[in-house]
Design goal:
This protein has about 500 residues and is of the alpha/beta class. It folds into 2 domains: about 1-390, no CATH class; about 395-495, D-Maltodextrin-Binding Protein, domain 2. It is built from 23 helices and 7 strands. The strands form 2 sheets. A 5-stranded mixed β-sheet has the order 4-3-5-7-6. The chain has a two-stranded antiparallel ribbon with strand order 1-2. Helix 15 (about 270-295) packs across helix 17 (about 340-360). The termini are far apart.
């Protein structure tokens, strides 16, 4: 309980202001509102079949339970505590998994502290997105499978019934992960497949049965979606999603031709806050390779002790997650949230290696070095948390506090990014991103995000931004450490306006 409360507090403080609104939050909160009001799995009047429904059902239940309504941004902020709770529970699950890796009390606490304080982990736990709930169910499945693996070979009265119940619970958790976000489901399916192949979780029937139950739940969910929204919308959404996943269609992410910023650019830009995360991901991948060698998984022999089983399971989980990320970086559609999939297993893989070194009578100097590295990492992440959470980085929240009293109803506003068009009320929205288009449509204002323009997202070009900076009047400017400036330009002097 103290671990959960600490992780929860870290995420809840300054939750509204620390992170800018993301387009996915706008979309997902709208879907949740539609579900709660009986309009089904729809987004702005059309079926939404790109992702499975589990997270939307959770969010919709919260909307219904608490009667959330009002301006879309108010619903978004009211829903942000939901992923916070799932992210905090993931910290607890990580601690429990680490407890099964070692008899040390300090190592599991170190694992929990690292995940609780990691700024990248917190950023996705703090937005209305799919990742936090999906990661929770993946971690829960791995933990339950570890419990299942550590009971084999110890028959006792009632053990068969207990095994059946535990297997069923693990399968249901697996199905929930599959129905939360399919990329997490793919990593979990690969983990279960590798666990069966290498006997990493005891008898092969354990992971295969869990995979079968999870697949049946996912199939049932998919069939339900077909019956409620139709097969054609689901097929269109999923063929497009699969094309982006395998890399044959590059329309989003760092590998897309329209994106002007590279992965290296983003890594360097975020180094001041996320250097610790980068270190964990790299060290976790290396640790997984070390575990493969130490556990001799290629021999496909069942683990001899419960801790060996958990180490082997963590190893195949990390390999599956890092393998997916490597493919996405090289060929697929790479987006920042994909690194979230790998963070928890990487931290656990590092813990497993440290435990093995401790078993090998790691000398006092080396233990002191590991402790010092952990302390520096926690201090670095604490400083990053302080910088992020003491700043008002929510550009859109600032804009929507200002806009009602400064922009007249009926004004014609061009939006070149993707969030404001769904949040602005009582104005005429357009997507005019050239000087000529502004004049032809008698625009009054244009809203741009400088970072999105620089990165190639949205419709504004760097040249167009420079034109506006030289010729238009910026009547609103908000700055964020990570998302640049959100600027509303008054262009009535250039276009003669709408009145």
């Amino acid at each position: 309980m103290p671990i959960f409360l600490l992780a929860l507090t870290i995420r809840l403080l300054h939750l509204k202001s620390a992170y800018n609104m993301f387009i996915d939050e706008v979309t997902y909160s709208e879907i949740a509102t539609n579900l709660a009001s009986g309009h089904g799995l729809t987004s702005y009047g059309a079926p939404f079949d790109l992702h499975p429904p589990m997270v939307f059902l959770t969010l919709g239940a919260v909307v219904r339970l608490f009667g959330l309504h009002g301006h879309p941004q108010d619903v978004i902020f009211a829903l942000r505590p939901v992923p916070v709770v799932f992210g905090s529970l993931t910290v607890v699950l990580s601690y429990l998994l680490a407890r099964r890796l070692t008899d040390s009390r300090a190592l599991p606490l170190g694992v929990a502290a690292v995940i609780a304080l990691d700024p990248f982990q917190i950023s996705f736990d703090s937005r209305v997105m799919l990742e936090a709930e999906a990661q929770f169910f993946v971690c829960l499945t791995v933990l339950l499978l570890a419990l299942l693996a550590t009971t084999f070979g110890r028959p006792r009265d009632g053990s068969n019934r207990l095994r059946t119940i535990l297997t069923l619970l693990t399968g249901v958790s697996c199905g929930a992960a599959f129905c939360s976000k399919e990329t997490f489901g793919l990593v979990l399916a690969a983990t279960l497949g590798l666990a069966a192949l290498c006997r990493a979780a005891g008898p092969r029937r354990n992971p295969l049965t869990v995979l079968g139950i999870g697949s049946a739940i996912y199939a049932t969910s998919t069939l339900t979606v077909w019956l409620t929204t139709g097969f054609a919308p689901w097929w269109t959404a999923h063929t497009s999603g699969i094309s982006r996943l395998v890399g044959t269609q590059q329309t989003t992410g760092f590998n897309a031709a329209t994106t002007h910023v590279s992965l290296a650019d983003r890594l360097l830009a975020n180094l001041g806050d996320l250097a610790g995360t980068y270190l964990l991901l790299f060290a976790g991948g290396v640790s997984a390779l070390m575990l493969i060698r130490r556990q001799r998984l290629w021999e496909r022999s069942e683990p001899t002790t419960p801790r060996e089983a958990v180490r082997s399971l963590v190893c195949v989980w990390t390999v599956a997650a890092c393998g997916y990320l490597t493919y996405a970086m090289a060929i697929g559609s790479l987006e920042e949230q994909m690194y979230y999939i790998t963070l928890v297993p990487c931290v656990l893989a590092i813990a497993a290696v440290v435990h093995r070194l401790r078993q090998d009578r790691l000398d006092r100097v080396a233990r002191t070095l590991w402790s010092a590295i952990l302390l520096v990492l926690l201090l670095f992440d604490s400083a990053a948390w302080s910088r992020i959470h003491r700043s008002d980085n929510n550009l859109y929240a600032q804009f929507f506090r200002w806009e009602p009293t400064h922009v007249a109803a009926g004004s014609r506003v061009s939006v070149t990014e993707f969030s404001a068009q769904f949040l602005l009320k009582d104005v005429v929205i357009g997507r005019w991103s050239t000087a000529e288009a502004l004049k032809q449509n008698h625009a009054d204002y244009i809203l741009l995000n400088t970072e999105l323009v620089r990165q190639g997202y949205g419709e504004g070009s760097p040249e167009f931004l420079r034109y506006l900076q030289a010729n238009a009047d910026p009547v609103f400017v908000a700055h964020s450490r990570s998302d640049g400036d959100l600027i509303l330009f008054d262009v009535r002097a250039l276009t003669a306006g709408s009145h």
